[in-house]
Amino acid sequence: MSAPEHAPAVPRRGLSPRQRSQRWRLAQYAVLAALVVVAIFSADWKQIGDVFFRPALIKAAFTEGLPEALLKTLEYTAGAFVIGLAGGTILALMRLSSVGPYRWLATAYIEFFRGLPAIVVFIAFSLLPLAFEGMTIPFDPYGVVWLALGIVAAAYMAEVIRAGIQAVPKGQIEAARSLGMPPGLALRKIVLPQAFRIVLPALANDLILLVKDSSLVFIIGVSTSANELTGFGRELANSESNLTPLIVAGICYLIITLPLGILVRRLEAKAARAR
């Protein structure tokens, strides 16, 4: 009687793609945790606290003008946003106009100011009174800051608003026209409200950028009482030879921008559900 034949060997299966992905992710977590541990135990926490988080200077920042600087930042941002939104809406309508010169002017403006760094615009506006003798910009320094930031913001907002207008279904405009509604009234009552709802998350992002761009105010050499957060933190840091005031100013920027970032994400999620 012949010996029983052996059953064929079952080939070993390798890891599935999902298992490989999990192992790779765990390896990344392990490397990250190791780096954090090394950083924690190798850092000189006493020196870090003394240079970046000195308690006496944190207290001094709040007592020597930080709330006023925070308010100035909000004022500069709000005024620039209003100017940018109004200018951006006009430019967007000019870009969509059937009149050629309007389109050319709007395109030239948008391309020019989107290509220039905001700091160049700040410097140019601060020097305008030297170029034109007797010229004054109202509400100085607010007028200079609002115009410089607003002019740049208008170029970016114009493209956002134009995209929103073009996203409004044309059928609604045609329906309004068929009911005898004048074009200007249809634009104000139907097109623009829907366009602004569509681009609201993008406009909120532009507002966040304006908050950060307001830090360029110190370039034009405003007085101490007109300083925004960066100018205030910079002056106090220079006088104390310590970076704590700048860290405090940076935290104040986060207090402003983080809630705006959360608002943007919620608006985007709401818009996605609506689609």
Automatic annotation (TrEMBL):
A Pfam short name: BPD_transp_1
Keywords of the record, alphabetical order, are:
Amino-acid transport, Cell membrane, Membrane, Transmembrane, Transmembrane helix, Transport
- Report how it sits in the membrane: Multi-pass membrane protein
Subcellular location(s) of the protein: Cell membrane
Q: Is Acetylation among the key words of this record?
A: no
Q: Does the keyword Hydrolase apply?
A: no
Q: Which Gene3D superfamilies match?
A: MetI-like
The UniProt transmembrane annotation reads 26-43, 76-96, 108-132, 144-165, 198-223, 243-264
ABC transmembrane type-1 domain sequence ranges: 70-264
Question: Where on the tree of life does the source sit, at the highest rank?
Answer: Bacteria
Entry's family note: Belongs to the binding-protein-dependent transport system permease family.
Q: What is this protein called?
A: Amino acid ABC transporter permease
